Amino acid sequence: MRRTRRDPIVTTVLTLLVGALLAGGWWALRSDPAAPAPAPAQAPPAAQREVTAQHSRQADRPVPRTFDRSAHSTTDPSSTWVIVNKSHPITPSQFRPELSIVRGYQVADPAAGPLTRLLDASDRQGLGFKIASAFRSYGYQDSVHKQLVAAQGEAAADRISARPGHSEHQTGLAVDIVTPADGRCDFEPCFAGTPGGRWLAGNAWRFGFVIRYTPENEERTGYSAEPWHLRYVGPALARELRETGAGSLEEYFGVPGGDYPPVP
Ligand SMILES: [Zn+2]
């Protein structure tokens, strides 16, 4: 192999020049606070993955969609995908979310904007929705349940009220909607047949909410149908549940629900 010999002076000058350039670049990076940070090696945040998945779903149709069921925790009570039921209590039991106020009620931060948009949209339809209940603390749920047990016995109390630590309302992601102007079906199964109940069943998903308890999934969720009880799960999962026809979070994630486990 033939090698070209370079004048030693030229080589020295070149070496110095390259060194100066490298040092200059390093100093610029060190001294310029606006210099772009190197790209992170880890995966993008979950929320970003959700949005990306949503976009690619829209763009890729009819190619089969893939939905990352592990994008969020179903056990962390601050996750919008958390599953709380009679066999999956909130852990830690005294959990309290970061809260925002929507129309005078406390809701978990991630649900606040979407709930406001849902209520604004319902107002434009003249549905007259009001929030009747949103975040409920462990202590509040405990006192309500104890009063019911004292008045009606535990079996009856369990049918109409969750035990403390077992209510979705403690996550701040659940809200109960009523229509005080015509309140005959407030907190009644017939709410599903009112204009408001029908609108929620058809549109809540657009804002990231699901009707958590329906007549079809009573056995699986362990709760009677509550067409007024909305649960925020985020728009991506709400759409996914709708498109796959999954009736409940328990069904979609393969998590047991049903009644309270027997006391040993
Ligand atoms: Zn509720």
Automatic annotation (TrEMBL):
It comes from the Bacteria. One of its GO terms (biological process) is proteolysis. The keyword Protease applies. Keywords: Carboxypeptidase, Hydrolase, Protease. Gene3D superfamilies: 3.30.1380.10. The keyword Protease applies. It holds the Pfam family VanY. Residues 34-79 are annotated as: Disordered. GO terms for molecular function: carboxypeptidase activity. Residues 108-234 form the D-alanyl-D-alanine carboxypeptidase-like core domain. This is D-alanyl-D-alanine carboxypeptidase family protein.
